[in-house]
Amino acid sequence: MSRRLELTGQAERTEAYETELPGFGEQLINLFRRVFKARRWIVGAVVAVMAVTAIVVYLMPNHYRSTATILPAGKADQLAELKNLAGLGSTSADDNSSELFPVILASRLVRNAVLETEYRIVDDGAEKRINLPEYFGSTIPDRLHRKLADISTITTDPKTRVITIAVETEYPTLSQAIVAEYLRQLEDYNLNKRRSQAQSSAAYLSVQVDQCRAALTELEDDLQAFQEVNRNWAATSDPEITTTLARFRREIELKTQAYLFLSQQLEASHLDEQKDTPVIRLLDEPSVPMDKSGPFRKSAIAISGLIALAFILLGILIYDVTISRMGRAEALLLSKCRDELKQGYPRTARIILRREDEPVG
């Protein structure tokens, strides 16, 4: 019974202390008071952060972005958008379409060629020769590829399939030159390295035509040699000679028909090869940018000041909440100590509590 009363008393005192804790409005007022008291320190900290940001951004050079736009080519998948919405995106692309252009542009093959090219640019009226390893200040291949990827942006519009390639450097003419080199390497790959089905067929038929021509020439030479040996072949009635001549004529006729058929197929394959070669159709040529693309110094300074102010206010709020919780914990601990003191030493507790309740003179 006494234990139950003791627990009930402690619960009542705990509830009393909880009701004594300040509410949200009072905490907000306390926060405003603390911020007002520390306003000079807060303003100084924010100004210091903005000053450091200003020094950093004004030491950064301007950047200029050059862009080019490529129109789609090849057969379009009419159900591509529906497949993407259903999560059943196409697993393969048309070999002769422009869907593979972004993959080719971002390939290591193309980027190696872009990195190895020496660029002639004009800066402040003076002509310069720049290669990208010197511009990036590195000769490590992997690092060069990462830096080139950082300044290059290749995107594809999901609806129109229009491809946009952009390069951002410290020199306007260098940005334009790198974009132009990307496009030149893409065209070179399409013309010389990218093989379509028509190209494969043309290569195969070309070999077959050569072999058929050689076999036909050999048969004609054999027939001519046979006729020279048997000069009276036209008037002879020898069955062996007439049979051999008939066999030669039949084989020559078959080889001639095969040669003509393969030649026609080869010409058709050459036409298909020209038709199936992916054509780069530029909507916007890479131009020399006149306006900088970054850094936006005023915006960076303002944002840094706002972020610094937000972190300071958050720190003050966390500090107030922590102090409030610590005060609550100390109050509960003091209440518990008082209860234990009353239970164990009633007389001593009355003396101590009476002294605590006495007003300070």
The proportion of residues in beta strands is 5-15%
Total individual domains: 3
Shape: elongated
Helix/sheet category: alpha+beta
Mean pLDDT: 77
Give the tally of β-strands.
6
Instruction: Determine the N-to-C terminus distance.
Output: 41 Å
Order of helices and strands: HHHEHHHEEHHEEHHHEHH
Numbering strands along the chain, what is their spatial order in the largest sheet?
4-5-1-6
Task: Enumerate the spans where pLDDT stays under 50 for 5 or more consecutive residues.
Answer: 1-21, 88-92
Largest sheet: 4 strands, antiparallel
Q: DSSP helix count? A: 13
Query: Level of helix content?
Result: 55-70%
Give a description of the structure:
- The protein has helices at residues 2-20, 24-37, 39-59, 80-85, 101-105, 108-116, 132-136, 141-151, 172-192, 197-229, 239-276, 297-344, 346-357; strands at residues 64-71, 118-123, 126-131, 152-156, 163-169, 281-284.
- It is an alpha+beta fold and 361 residues long.
- The protein folds into three domains: 2-58 and 297-357, no CATH class; 63-194, no CATH class; 197-276.
- The strands form two sheets. A four-stranded antiparallel β-sheet has the order 4-5-1-6. Strands 2-3 form a two-stranded antiparallel ribbon.
- Helix 1 (2-20) packs antiparallel against helix 12, helix 2 packs across helix 12 (297-344) and helix 3 packs antiparallel against helix 12.
- The chain is elongated, with a radius of gyration of 44 Å.
- The two termini are 41 Å apart.
